[in-house]
Amino acid sequence: MGTIKKFKNYFSNIPMLGWLLGVFTAVLIEYYWGYDYISYYLGLPKIPALFGALFMLKDPYMIPGVMGYNLIVYIIPILLIAKITTFFTNPTAFILEKMPLWLSVIIHLICFYGILHLWAGINDYRALVVKLTMISIILTISINVINGYQGEFSCSHPGFMAIGAYISSVLTLLFFVDDKIFGAALLPSYLGPWIFPLTLIAGGFAASFGSLIVAIPSFRTRGDYLAIISLAFMFIIKSAIENIQFIGGARGMGGQPDYATLPVIFIWTMLCIWIIHNFVTSIMGKALNAVRDDEAASESMTVKTRKTKMTAFMFGAFWAGIAGGLFAHVLSYINPGTFSLTRLAEILAMVYFGGLNSIVGSIVGAVSISVLGEALRPLELYKWIIIPLILIFVMIFRPYGLISFKEINAKRLLRSKNKKEEGV
Questions:
Q1: Residue 360 lies in a domain
Q2: Per-residue pLDDT tens for 323-364?
Q3: Is the pTM of this model over 0.85?
Q4: Residue 296: which domain range?
């Protein structure tokens, strides 16, 4: 423990800007020398997609090569560059700290996106994993509003996701694509990327209004009725889509244009984090927490409990619809089976693994489960044994998740580290 504490203290004076610079250096090393030199001389067939996890599971003899690759490309450059550039990054972070917080956050996010874009652009598989992981972040944060901040247990998120996916898909295919079902496009295709955000919002509003089917009867009752009604709603939506031939029925719907690019999904993810953070820290969010902790006491303090719960429920459904629209346009194909119990299990695993009542926890849970699921893909059936076991251990030792009841503190995260702080 003493060694870990010394190691942590040694790197404690590095601001976020320094870590970003270190990661950027590592990605540049991989981009220019990862394939022709480093992976070649370490005996790897190509650049590892997910830090070599797929290689190690397929062929254990590659474990030394993968460990060496991660050490040379990622660990050493990140730690070294982040530490030796503190003479530059700390004064720069101090200058950024004097700026308005929103401007400093945007500058850091631009730097982060540049690194992410370069890393994901090395191969198509990485780009797909990054896109789906960001969509998972939106889903996890949105369901945390209901299951965490509201304290209910909803199972209807795949249904909301399906509504958003199909509504946005129908709109883009109708207006911008020459489709065999909807006929010739009604608008020029070059307008598609610019109007695409409006189709996503339309899908989000459709999901939000659809949530009233669950909310109106559920919030007139107490106890576990929401879980039962929301689960029934998910099956109703799935069955309805399977029997509507106009949108493909059980065959599904394909041909969605590739409007959900990496920058588009990144912007929507950041907007989701920012808007939901403002929502849960607002008066409405505080009222939601009060209702969760003691509904009777909240009513006695003039909090309109039913209105508060319905607002939060519709708000979470809206973002699930947005995620569904993005998901449909990433894969360019959807079918009713995509929004089944398996999807529900994944979403619930992410939110309870990361932590309830915490946006940071939701991000950690979504990234962890998404990457872990892809990394364990070579194990096939065994993957669905390992992941539940991990979740069981987390639930035993951390019942509320890894990072629960914590909010984002951007000012503390981005600030510079001076000598006075180091001595504290």
A1: yes
A2: 999 999 999 999 998 998 889 988 998 999 988 888 999 999
A3: yes
A4: 124-410
